[in-house]
Amino acid sequence: MARWRESQALRFSLLGRHAWAIADADEAVALWRPVAGQHPAAMARAVAVRAWCLHVRGRTAEAARDVEECLAFCDRAGAGADAVDLAKVVSLLDRVDRAEAALALADRLLADALRVAQPASTEPMLAYGELMLRHGRPVQALDALRQAYAAAAWWSSPRLRASAMLFEALAAAGRIEELEEHTRRDLPLMAGNALVSLSGRRLYIRVLELLEHHHVTVVAAIPAKLAKQRRKLLHQRRRWWVLTAALAVVTGNPRAVPDRP
Questions:
Q1: What top-level branch of life does the organism fall under (predicted)?
Q2: Given Cys at both, which of 56, 238, 242, 248 links 257, Cβ 3.0 to 4.6 Å?
Q3: How many Cβ atoms from other residues are within 10 Å of residue 75's Cβ?
């Protein structure tokens, strides 16, 4: 339930429904509070989610207090199983304008992950790569993203995320030949994932837009492909809205109705 509350809080913040977002984030923190000593990484993540929701709303003083509490729980957390939660904290810290703290945590997680032959999770490499990309340092992102890509299972969420960020990092670093090779290998994976979900369709469109921008010639008729994918995305979003709105009515939960596409 706490994880669901966190995801709802993030979703509502992105939609601009700040009161609902903060209420869900408060509930997530309250649910983790009694077991915070046993699960410091999970508590750090919940507090970081609330900090982001407060920050987006403009309640920066409260967000800053949450950040300090989050960092204290990060210090108590270990490696291994805690890496997934702490990797999420990296991204959230960066989004509340605490880039130095985010980088310090990302460095720590990456060092812990690289210390073992088979890390428990690829999330530390992905978090580090994402952070480097956000700060315009694609070359530094490449090694971590390549390791995450190699370690992740085929067609898993980490593999798809690593692949998508590799498209971005190779393009930003000017590694066009490597980008073309990566395109030949993984664009079919992105196209297949587009058939599965809305997020997969959005990811495929983003990759096609990047390839078009960098004039990658190994893919034919990119403008036509983009137009087709955008039409399909709109149709998917409309179907998803109808189903979600109907479910919200049946369950008596008006908060679950998304914005109409």
A1: Bacteria
A2: 248
A3: 11
